[in-house]
Amino acid sequence: MTLGATRRALSRITIVLALALAMAAATTGLLPGTAAHAQTAASGSLSFSGDPGDYISGGQSYSYSTESQDSFNISASSDNRVVSLAVDGANGDWWYLDLAAPSGQVLVPGDYTGATRYPFNGPSEPGLSLFGNGRGCNTLTGSFTISQVIFGPHGYVQALDATFEQHCEGWDAALRGEVHIANPAPPAELALGVAVALDGTASTLNGKATVHGTVSCNEPVKVSISGTVTQVSKRVLIKGSYNTSVACEPGAPVAWTGTAAPTGSTPFQKGDAEVMAQASAQDPIYGQTVTASETAVVSLSKS
């Protein structure tokens, strides 16, 4: 991170904390849902201007776009209620815009009137906030119109077209602007598969059970495989767990092998055992943990 970006991040934190402390005693609003990783917009623009006396704009006009080498990062909350945009201007400017539907609603095309400052808007109120460059509203009123919004999985924002108007501290002076975001269709989510082979071994040297299988994926990822081996022999319960990991590549199943040590003094035996396997990996696009599991009866042979 550059020194300028670090200073902008610290400035944003300072503003957010100061405004949050000022509003903490009065707020009844809901905090936003979990958001996905912010994605860099393929194409975007943000422009706004303010009346004389508007605190945020200082009565000036501002315009940013990806064509001008300004950076746009956008994400939505997990329930598609809130869209959050961060703009880092090539000239060092930085701005943050939040547009939120009332609690329990999905953000859809339409007019949102009676908005108050996000995230302190009441449950029945839309939320709105544009702040940056060291300036933010303590309270605000306003409205916004969503012309188009298209969501993908896990907070991916494919398209957003909106206009907005906000008034700081109840003043008549207004700030008015518009935002446009366009991204490719959302990438596929990570898909995992795990299989347990129906044969394994029980060691006569150390009493451990070795089992194996395969994992499959549609993206290159590191997959962790964990599970249990459970066996009953002469009315004695024998159980152990195993953990391993493999590098999975799309196109063909990848083999895995795990070894479970018995938790008690009785070693694993020749015969049938129940093997549970769970594979997990982090989706490289959406940052979500994806899992897959399988349970099978495995025939253990002596080794």
What do you see in this structure?
It is a single chain. With 303 residues, the protein is mainly beta. It is 7% helix and 52% strand. The strands form 2 sheets. Strands 1-4-5-6-8-7-9-10-11-2-3 form an 11-stranded mixed β-sheet. Strands 12, 13, 14, 15, 16, 17, 18 and 19 form an 8-stranded mixed β-sheet that branches. β9 and β10 (157-168) form a beta hairpin. The termini are far apart.
Overall number of structural domains = 2
| Silhouette | elongated
Order of helices and strands: HEEEEEEEEEEEEEEEEEEE
- How many helices? The count is 1
Provide the structure class. mainly beta
Residue share in β-strands? over 45%
- The strand line-up of the biggest sheet is 1-4-5-6-8-7-9-10-11-2-3
Helix content: under 10%
- pLDDT averaged over residues: 90
Name the poorly predicted regions: 1-35
Write the layout of secondary structure elements.
Blueprint: H1 3-23, E1 39-40, E2 43-50, E3 61-65, E4 71-76, E5 82-88, E6 94-100, E7 110-117, E8 127-132, E9 140-151, E10 157-168, E11 175-182, E12 192-196, E13 199-202, E14 209-217, E15 221-233, E16 236-248, E17 254-260, E18 271-282, E19 289-302
Parallel strand pairs: 7-8, 13-19
Antiparallel strand pairs: 1-4, 2-3, 2-11, 4-5, 5-6, 6-8, 7-9, 9-10, 10-11, 12-14, 13-14, 14-17, 15-16, 15-18, 18-19
Question: What are the key terms here?
Answer:
single chain; 303 residues; mainly beta; Immunoglobulin-like; 2 domains; 11-stranded mixed sheet; 8-stranded mixed sheet; 1 helix; elongated; disordered N terminus
